[in-house]
Specification:
This protein has a 5-stranded antiparallel sheet with strand order 1-3-4-5-2, with helices on one face. By secondary structure, it is an alpha+beta fold. The two termini are 13 Å apart. Strand 3 and strand 4 form a beta hairpin. It is 23% helix and 33% strand. It contains 4 helices and 5 strands, in the order E-H-H-H-H-E-E-E-E.
């Protein structure tokens, strides 16, 4: 069984990233899965008349990239996502490449919790989302 890093294997300042280019398909699939059919995401005619002048990705789709980092890289497999605070700072458009990054801010060893800075930036290095998460990393398997 593969597990991610335990609390003893991490230190403050550790980081990990995941990058993905957002496609039109991603937006339609996310809308279908969640039921969020806001025309700002799926209707170009409507979106042309908005502040953004084109369709934008769902904010929570972007936030999902943070979940990918937590689940697959830091801490990794077996991590339980407990809390997320975030601010959406800029739109994500079709074709943008988003890099989600997590950084260990604090290790709460006695409770097996990790506090992380969470950030998503686009290909122009514009921060589109920032926040803070708390997770429970996996425990070492019993021998």
């Amino acid at each position: 069984m593969i597990i991610g890093k335990t609390i003893d294997q991490m230190k403050v300042g550790d980081t990990a990233e995941f990058a993905k280019t957002v496609t039109e398909t991603d937006i339609y699939l996310y809308a279908g899965i969640t039921g969020d059919f806001n025309p700002a995401h799926i209707n170009e005619t409507y979106a042309k008349n908005t502040f953004f002048k084109t369709r934008i990705a769902h904010g929570m789709l972007t936030a999902g990239f943070i979940s990918a980092v937590l689940a697959n890289k830091l801490p990794g497999a077996g991590t339980i996502y407990l809390k997320q605070e975030m601010s959406f700072l800029a739109p994500v458009r079709i074709g943008d490449t988003i890099t989600a990054r997590v950084e260990v801010l604090e290790l709460i060893t006695e409770k097996n919790r990790v506090r992380l800075k969470t950030t998503c930036t686009n290909q122009d290095n514009v921060v589109v989302l920032e926040g803070e998460a708390q997770v429970m990393p996996p425990k070492a398997p019993k021998k």
